[in-house]
Amino acid sequence: MDRSACGCRHRGMIMNRAQQLRHWMFVRHAHPVSAWSRLLTVPLVAAPFWTRRTDVTAGVLVWFAMNPIMTPEPADRRSFATRAILGEERWLAQPGLDRTMGALNVLGVVALGGAVLAAWHRRKAPTVVGVAATMALTLYGWRRYADLYDGARDAL
């Protein structure tokens, strides 16, 4: 590998441009304001399906596109949300660190998919349950990702 082609290092490793961009996004999204605001606005994902309005869809898309990059890199990495997001970055680079995270992520997608489907049919209770399940699974995932970031070998 030509080390002069890339001037970026992360944990002593040379990164290509795609890795640099992903890392740039993750360190900004790791700011507690970005991470928590994204989690707390998960219910917005159902809004375009419930309302079927293009302006709502556009607003939600803009929010979720801007959120991971709207904040600077966190000043320190002690925050739970910061450690969780940086642990997720680590897991994406090395999924073998926690083999159950893939299944947990699939469960989260299924829960969100159920919420979206329920919103399309304008069924309030299943929409709320699906969104709540998605958020709960996300928080559990964050705990595991934070453990990975902290170097825990047996993330639970």
What does it look like?
By secondary structure, the protein is mostly helical. The chain has one domain (3-150). Helices cover 65% and strands 3% of the residues. It contains 7 helices and 2 strands, in the order E-E-H-H-H-H-H-H-H. The chain has helices spanning 17-29, 32-40, 47-51, 54-66, 80-93, 101-120, 124-150, and strands at residues 9-10, 13-14. It has a two-stranded antiparallel ribbon. Strand 1 and strand 2 form a beta hairpin. Helix 5 (80-93) packs across helix 7 and helix 6 runs antiparallel to helix 7. The chain is globular, with a radius of gyration of 17 Å. The protein starts with 8 loop residues before the first strand and ends in a 6-residue tail after the last helix. The relative contact order is 0.14. Mean pLDDT is 90; it is low at 1-8.
Task: Tell me the helix content.
Answer: 55-70%
Structural class by sheet pairing and helices: mainly alpha
How far do the termini sit from each other?
Answer: 37 Å
Taken from the alpha-carbon principal axes, the silhouette is globular
Please report the total strand number as a whole number: 2
- Tell me, rounded to a whole number, the average pLDDT: 90
Relative strand content:
under 5%
